Amino acid sequence: MGHPFDLTGRRALVTGGATGIGEGIALALAEAGADVALTYRSHAPDDIRGRIADMGRHSAAVRADFTDMDASAATQVVDFARDALGGLDILVNNAGIIHREDSTHMPLDDWRRVLSVNLDSVWLLSQAAGRHMVAQGAGRSITVASVLSHQGGLRVAGYASSKHAVLGLTRALCNEWASHGVNVNAIAPGYTATDNTQALRDDPERSRALLERIPAGRFAEPAEIAGAAVFLASDAAAYCHGSVITVDGGWLAR
Q1: Catalytic center residues
Q2: pLDDT per residue over 137-177, tens digit each?
Q3: β-strand 90-93 against 182-189: which pairing, if any?
Q4: Model-level pTM?
Q5: DSSP letters for 62-121
Q6: Which residues pair with 39 in a beta bridge?
């Protein structure tokens, strides 16, 4: 019997996999033995693909913009990963954006853009990958939620709403797919040193307030979120269905 965290022979698709938390997850899955396809929008994937190759794993990358994604585009992304890797066993819906603005002034277009990327694309990619996974009787679908799946945050109404909805979607799909051998779970990262938190980290007053609230006393590094994804993708999580793993330095416990 192999090691329960060994992903050798598994094929994974990680959205937004060229930077931030997605990059950390893609590298961790490869290190655990998986071949990895990733989507990217503006960050060139050459570096991460080279690092995956150095681990002896295969990779592929496709440019994708999840704003106003439709079912056909989602199917194309999933089919690309399946064709490039020879199958698909793991989906990590990581791609996301954030918009900070007072709710009294936020334009509808910005609200819709956040919901389109953070929720609609998650639904469409989950649906497209889920058809394949349910048919093959096995698979892992992992959504990247947030501590703001549990809280309202400040000046991020669209983001918080989308991340609350992602948890609802995770649980709904779990109820449908668990009996078909497909595990649907979520990760809820806390404040992590990525592009999405750059504005907060550059604001001395806001950064200080956040760090005072985090028991660990610091922002997470993207690689520190990735272990939860490896766990949920592995045989060690065979009985995890509809679970949410919080990786937040103690933020929600405060």
Answers
A1: 159
A2: 999 999 999 999 999 999 999 999 999 999 999 999 999 99
A3: unpaired
A4: 0.95
A5: EE---TT--HHHHHHHHHHHHHHHTS--EEEE---------TTT--HHHHHHHHIIIIIH
A6: 62
| Averaged pLDDT, 73-101 | 97
- What are the residue boundaries of the structural domains of the chain, listed by start? 11-253
| Cα(128)–Cα(122) distance, integer angstroms | 10
8 phi and psi, to 5 degrees? -55, 130
Pull the structure tokens for residue 32: 């655990």
Contact of 21 with 144, CB cutoff 8 Å? yes
Per-residue model confidence as pLDDT tens digits over 109-118: 999 999 999 9
Burial of 114: CB neighbours in 10 Å, binned 0-12, 13-18, 19+: buried
Query: Torsion-angle region of residue 181: left (phi > 0), alpha (psi -120 to 50) or beta?
Result: left
Interatomic CA distance for residues 148 and 159, integer angstroms: 8
pLDDT in tens, 173-216: 999 999 999 999 999 999 998 877 788 888 888 889 899 999 99
Could you report how far apart the first and last alpha carbons of the chain are, in Å?
A: 41
Q: What is the DSSP string of 142-206?
A: EEE--GGGTS--SS-HHHHHHHHHHHHHHHHHHHHHGGGTEEEEEEEE-SBSSGGGHHHHH-HHH
Please report the pLDDT score of residue 2 as a whole number: 66
User: Is 11-253 assigned to CATH 3.60.15.10?
Assistant: no
